[in-house]
Batch of 3 targets.
Target 1
Amino acid sequence: MKAADGTWRGISIDLWQRAATSLHLSYRFAEASTVDDLIKGTTEGRFDAAIAAITVTASRDRNVDFGQPYFSTGLGVAVPANSASPWESIRRIFFSFGFVQAVAALVGMSVLVELLIWLFERRHNEHFGGGTKGLGSGVWWSTTTMTQKGSAQRAPTTLPGRLLAIAWMVASVIAIAVFTAGITSSLTKREIQGLVQNESDLTSVRVGVVAASAAQDYLARQRIRTYGYANANEGLRALQAGRIDALVYDRPLLKWLVLQGFSSSLRVLDATFAEQNYAIAFPKGSALREKVDAVVLDNIESEWWGEALFRYLGGR
C-alpha cells in the first residue's frame, strides 16, 4: 500500500526491507501498474527483483527465476453481502441441470408405469384397449395417479395392474415429496447464503476477474466464462453495482480490499481454491536470488512473520 507521502508498506514490502537490511543492500522501489509489468521489467533487466503478490506460474517461470515461496494462499470469491433476489434464485434453479435431471426422472418413471399398465390391462380393461388410444389412456392414468388426482378413475382391473397401481401411488408420493423438498431446500439455501457458496457455483453465474491474472488463467482452464477488469477495485465496483455475481481474485488481496472499501455491501467466502504461492522474481541467472532466499526463509520461520501476517490480514 502506498501512503500519501509516497512511502510503501505491506507484507511484501516489510519482508523485503528486513531482507535488504540483513544483506546490507542499497535499493529503491520502482512502481509498476500490473504484475505483468513487474515480470516484463524483471525479464528485461530494468528491475533487479520484483516483489508483490506475484503468483508463481509456469509461464512466468520461463521468463524469470523465482525465489523461495514466502506465502501460500489461493483464489477467493467476493460476493454481495445481501442475499440474492428470490426470483433470480427460482430462475436459476428451474434452468439448472439438476432440475432438468429430476424432471426427466419423474417423466421416465411415469412413462415406464404407463407402458406396464397398458400391457397388463389392454386385454382386460376397455379404457386401456387398442393401440394409440390405450397408450394415451395409460399416460393420462399414470400422470393423474402420480399427482394423486383421479387415481380411482379408470382403475386397473387385473391383479398385476392393481399391484402396480398401489406401488406407483406409494412411489410417486415419495418421489414428489423428495422433489419438492429439494427445490424448497435449494431456494432456502440460496436465499440465505446467496447464489454462490463455493467454486462449483461459478459455472452458473457471471464471474469477474482481473484481466491477465492467474485467476483468469485458472478459470479459463475450468471452462468458466469470465468478465475482465483492469484491477480488483474496478471488479468490486462492478460486483457492487450488480453487473456481475462474483469476483475471483487472490484471496488475501480480496479480503483486504473488501475490508477497506466494500465491507458494508460485499463479503469474501470462506472457501479457498486453486492453491498459489507468492515469491520474489529475479532476472534469469541472478546472483542475488540465492542470497535473498536464505534471508527470506529465516524471516518466514520467525515469530516476526506471524505477527506481520496477523497485523495485515488478521492471521492466515
Target 2
Amino acid sequence: MRMFLLLAGIVSLAVLAPSTSAQPQTGFTVTSTLDGRTVLPHSLHWLGHPSLPAAQVREVDFLIDSKLDHVEHKPPYVYGDDDEGRHLGSLVTSWLSPGEHRFTVRAVATDGRTATDTVVARVVAAPAPPAALAGTWERTIEDTSASPKPGSPGNPTDTGTPPGRYTITFDRRWIHDVFPCDTSPCRFNARTGGGGEFLSDWTPGAKTFTVRGEIRIRLFHDTDRLGGSWCYRDGPDATYSWSVDGDTLTLTPAGGHDACAVRGFIWAGQWTRVR
C-alpha cells in the first residue's frame, strides 16, 4: 500500500513541560501526545491536537530534528497517516540514532497563523537481529498469479506482486523488502508494484520474530520507490519462525498463515543469502 502526503506548513506554541520548548502564542495552541516524555519507546502513536476547530486547520506538520517528515490535513492528526481514522500510523524510533532528538508538531491555520509544540526526548537503540538472520536474502518467484487479489481480505490495500527477484534485509532498524523491477531504469510502477520498497517494524528473536506495520522515515511521494506497507500501515502483526541452514533461510508464519496474506505469499518459503 502506498499512501502519500505533500509538504507544507509552519508553527509556534508553549507547553509547560521540561522537555518542551515554548514559542510565542499566535491566538491558538497545539499540543502533542509526546508532551512530558523524556524517553520514547520503540513505537507509539504521535498525534497533534490544535486548539482550533478542524475547519480552521489547514494542516498539521510533524518534524524530527527540524526536518519535515509528515503532513496531515484532516483529524486525527497523526504521524504516519491514519487511513481516514481507521488504521493509525506509528512513530517507530528504531531508525533514529540513539540519543536526544527534537520532535515538533506544527499546526497551520487556514488564515496562515501557526503554532508549534517541540519535545526533546531520548531514543534508545533497537535490539540487533541474530547474526544468522541479519543481512540480505533473495528469492525469485516466477509466477505470482496465486497471490491474493487486490482488494481481497488478504490484500486489502492493493499491494502488487510482480514476478521476479525479491530481496529481504533484516536490520536492527527494520525489515526492508525490495520488489522486482519491471521498468528500465528501475522506478516504482504503481500499476504492478514493481520496484517498490517497504520498511516494516519488527522485533527479532532467537527462533521467531514479530513483524508489524510500516516505518515512516520521511515524506513520501507517489513516484518514490520507498514507501508504503504490505497491508495496513498498522499491520496486521504476524509472527514468523525462521531457521538458517548454510546459505538458506526458511520463513514460516505461525499457524501456517499470515493475516496479511500477500506478505505471507512473498515471505513464506526459502531464501538464499546475498550478503
Target 3
Amino acid sequence: MLKNKIYKYLFNEILKNFITILLTFTAIAWVVRAVNFLDLMVEDGYASSIYFNYSVLNITTIMTRFIPLSFLLSLTVCIIRFERQQELLILWVSGLAKIKIANIFILTAGIITALQLILSLFVNPTLLNKSRSLLSDTNALNISTILKSNEFSDTFKGMTFYIKKKTNDNQLTNVFINDKNGNLKTILSEAGGQNNSIIFAERGIVDKDNLILYNGVIQTLNKKNEIKNIQFEKTELNTRDLTTRTVKLAKIQETSSSSSLRCLRNKNNNLNLKNCSSENKSEVIQALSRRLGAPLYVPLTTVIICFLLLYKKENKFNFLKKYILFILSFVILVFAEMLLKYTGISTFVASFYFVLPVIMFFLFYLLLLKKTVSEKT
C-alpha cells in the first residue's frame, strides 16, 4: 500500500512538471506563430474570427512538437529535486529498489508516448484539415481589408487590384483592376464576355461583399486582337464569386493517417495528392515517420535520464554526470529531428529511424539493470 502511494506521488510530480513546462513552451511558440498568422487579416483580408479559429486549431500541432523535450526537462528536474530534498535517499533506505523507480519513470514515458501518438496520428491531421477548410471559404474574406492605398493586391486568383487612395469610410479613388481569367462576369457581359479585361474607375466604394465603381471604362481584347472600350457610370462587382489563391487541397500534414498509409500501399484514395506520385510518397513517408517514429524517442531519453538514480550525492563529479546525461538525451532528440528529414529518401533510412530508438532503449535498459544489480553486491 505504501509503495503504491510512493509510485503515485512520483507519477503526479513528474506529470505536474511536464504539463507546466509543456504549456509554457506551447504558449510561447503559439504567440510567435499567431503573430505570423496576422498576415491572414492584414494581407489576405480574412475576418478576425477566422484568424483566431485558425490559430487555435494549430495549438495541438505545436504542443506535440514540444512533448519529448518537455518530458525530458520534467524528468530531469524532478530527479534532481528528489535528490536534493533527500527523498530518493529515504526510498533507498526503506529498501525500495532503484530499478522499480526507473520502471515508474519509464511507464510514465510510455503514457506520454501514447499521448503523443494519439495527437500526431489522429488529432493533429483532423484539426489541420479543419483549419485549411476555414481558409478555403471565400465568403470569409473582407475585401475592404485587402484593398489598400498605393498597393497592388493579387489575393484573388487571376486578378490584380490597385487603389490610388482609400479613406477610412471605404471610399476609393482611381481604381485599377486587371482581370485575366474572366472573373468579373457581371461586368464582362457588357463587354462581349472577353476573358482578359482592364477596368479603370474614377472612384468606388466597398459595401460589404460588393465593390461599386463609378465613372469608368472597361477595356477588353477580342479574338481579333482588337481593343474594345465600354464606358460606364456605375457598375457593381460581387466578390463572393471570386476565387482566392489559397491552396484548397489538403497538404500532407493535414491528411489523415489512414489515407497516407493507403497511399503507400499504392491504392488510389481521397488523399488529394495527385494520385500519390513518387514525389508525394517521399513526403508521406516523412510525415508518417514524424507521427509514428518521433514518439519512440521519449522512452529512450527517459531510460538514459534514469541513470541519474545510480549516482551518489557525495561524488564530486556528480554534477558533470547530470549535464552529460541531459546533453546526451537532448542530442538524441536533435538527431532524431534531423534524421527525420531524410526518412523519405529511402526505405533503409526510414526503417533505421524506427528501429534505432527501440534497440537503443533495450541496450540502455539492460545496462541500467546491470548497474542497479551491481550496486547491491
